[in-house]
Design a protein that fits this description.
By secondary structure, the protein is mainly α. Helix content is about 65%, strand content about 0%. The protein contains 6 helices and 2 strands. Strand 1 (about 145) and strand 2 (about 150) form a beta hairpin.
Length: about 160
């Protein structure tokens, strides 16, 4: 019973990952970390070694060791380690996506497609709304750059990251 709950939680966490990217860094990082922990638990429980001995994961580990070494020998290692030390969570997220595609197949890919399309539509419609009505959803002031051009941020407020 607990395994079914954990597997479903993992399934839905990863499905909502694209939508949470719109909200800012906290929720995607939380989902990335939680789903990574769940994947590690499931891989230990079900002895899923094929994901960890794959070429992808070995190349990812080499890449991770390179950026970690680069951070350690930089001029400011503490500042550099802030972004690179916990980078391994993205490798576990990718392995988790692979695991979910293997175990759930078409169902997972179908719902993931809906999730990605929903997040793109939310961001796009908020950008179009701001462009045509010149009104920001989160704030009532327009973002104007140094050339007096209106910058569209959509639902991101002060951050001008709609296109990224």
């Amino acid at each position: 019973m607990a395994n079914i709950f954990i597997s479903r939680l993992n399934f839905y966490l990863v499905l909502f990952f694209p939508i949470t990217i719109i909200s800012g860094p906290f929720l995607p990082d939380l989902i990335c970390s939680l789903s990574g922990c769940i994947f590690i638990y499931l891989s230990i429980k079900h002895k899923l070694k094929k994901y960890f001995i794959s070429k992808f994961f070995i190349l990812f580990l080499i890449f991770y060791l390179i950026i970690l070494t680069s951070s350690l020998i930089s001029k400011n290692p503490i500042h550099s380690l802030e972004s690179s030390l916990f980078y391994f969570r993205f490798g576990f997220l990718a392995l988790n996506f692979w695991y979910l595609v293997d175990t759930n197949g078409e169902k997972f890919l179908k719902y993931l497609t809906y999730s990605v399309i929903t997040s793109i539509l939310i961001a796009s419609f908020s950008g179009y709304f701001e462009y045509f009505f010149q009104f920001i959803i989160n704030d009532n002031s327009l973002n104007i750059d140094k050339n007096n051009a209106i910058r569209i941020s959509g639902i991101f407020g002060e951050e001008l990251v709609l296109g990224s």
